[in-house]
Amino acid sequence: MKCVFCGNEAVYVRPYDKIALCVKxxxxxxxxxxxxxxxxxxxxxxxxxxxxxxxxxxxxxxLLDVLSRIxxxxxxxxxxxxxxxxxxxxxxxxxxxxxxxxxxxxxxEHHIFSFKKDFGYDLDEIIRxxxxxxxxxxxxxxxxxxxxxxxxxxxxxxxxxxxVLVTAHNLEDEAETILLNIIRGxxxxxxxxxxxxxxxxxxxxxxxxxxxxxxxxEIVMYCLVNELEYQEIPCPYxxxxxxxxxxxxxxxxxxxxxxxxxxxxxxQDKLLGMIQEYKSDKELKxxxxxxxxxxxxxxxxxxxxxxxxx
Length: 310
Fold this sequence. Notes:
Layout: E1 12-13, E2 20-21, H1 23-40, E3 49-53, H2 58-70, E4 78-85, H3 92-106, E5 109-114, H4 115-119, H5 123-130, H6 141-159, E6 164-166, H7 171-184, H8 187-191, E7 207-208, H9 216-225, H10 243-254, H11 260-275, E8 285-286, E9 293-294, H12 300-309
Parallel strand pairs: 3-4, 3-6, 4-5, 6-7
Antiparallel strand pairs: 1-2, 8-9
Helix pairs in contact: 1-9, 2-3, 2-9, 7-10, 7-11
């Protein structure tokens, strides 16, 4: 099959519109889609210091690479990479290896933060301390990890002086999150999925997701054709995540309905104006322990820390 733009041999055919792309035009289309999302949702200013969460997986490595290329056109902006070491034996070391490899290649400033340094425990120790799920431990490991990672990422972004914190969540990740919130009937969380970075509390660095409209398959192809090595082994705790069942539904359904994730995300965008009119009865305030944003006396990370240290 030939590339629709130049007639050269195609390396990828997009399932949702049947457009065939050669390496050159796959890269060009990939960059254009990322730039379009950044512009549409007003993610960056021309002089912003942009912190990218880099785990070493395919999404974050691709995002680091493409943003480094895009931001060359904006010399007044800066990119800094942040990696969080959760402390997962036989897993995190490989991710750190690939993160460090690519930031060095791109000559990007890199900062590594850890659960152990911030909380005194790594994730493996926390899970052992909380006990078996369904007995001593109420939630899956991914819930606890997500709470703490968000906390450390935000603290790291503040520490490095970032104007915006960027994560590499892709199209299916976003569709998955939207569906989870619908399943839970959580209108407040749906409203907080606004893709335009906002300063909602003094403690929180605004967040952006430049891959919000980029399918996972195209991220994999971008890494493949550009020879970007990344961590491929899955997290050993992923088996506990309910989110995985929703993800399986999305990918299974997309085999017959290739536009599924696009439609879910576009639907969220259309509904956002109406959702934002919903006023929560829970006021956003400062955590009594750490000062970070919360609707309760303690933020979730401080609540979890109390569970660990009891």
